[in-house]
């Protein structure tokens, strides 16, 4: 039996889902649909703290405010209380983990432990430049290489 040298761990991955056209009643609901669309949130998931983290950063984009993870955590807690949502998953470690997931999708960047939406840019521009043209294109090229290799 040949010795396996590497595990089947993907170098990068993305989940994309298609939902109905955006008509959400609140900005939080719109943010939630975006998180569902790009795989940051699973359908039916009750643990949706990533939505509030992303929403806090989106709200600060216009003000061009950088925040550390503890400031984000405090804003998330107050937002969840305001929306009468349970304060589950708002531990500092989970906030940092969710920020890393947002960062891995190029939606968020950090500068000296301060987080912001990438370059305070519009989300449509981030999607076009970072996700569609760079991230998704690299994944598609590699998948295409596998299709070509199998003869």
What does this entry look like structurally?
The two termini are 24 Å apart. The protein has a two-stranded antiparallel ribbon with strand order 1-2. The longest helix has 27 residues, at 123-149. It is built from five helices and two strands. By secondary structure, it is mainly α. It has two domains: 27-119, Winged helix-like DNA-binding domain superfamily/Winged helix DNA-binding domain (Arc Repressor Mutant, subunit A, Orthogonal Bundle), CATH 1.10.10.10; 121-151. A hairpin with a 2-residue loop joins strand 1 (108-111) and strand 2. The mean pLDDT is 92. It has helices spanning 27-37, 49-61, 69-82, 92-104, 123-149, and strands at 108-111, 114-117.
- What is the alpha-carbon Rg in Å? 18 Å
Strand elements, count: 2
Global outline: globular
What's the pLDDT, averaged over the residues? 92
Strand order of the largest sheet: 1-2
CATH fold label of the largest domain: Arc Repressor Mutant, subunit A
List the secondary-structure elements in sequence, H or E.
HHHHEEH
Low-confidence stretches: none
Q: In which range does the helix fraction lie?
A: 40-55%
The separation of the N and C termini measures 24 Å
Indicate how many domains the architecture comprises.
2
Going by CATH, the homologous superfamily of the largest domain would be Winged helix-like DNA-binding domain superfamily/Winged helix DNA-binding domain
Please give the CATH architecture of the largest domain: Orthogonal Bundle
Number of helical stretches of at least 4 residues: 5
CATH class of the largest domain: Mainly Alpha
The biggest beta sheet reads: 2 strands, antiparallel
Q: Helices and strands: which structural class?
A: mainly alpha
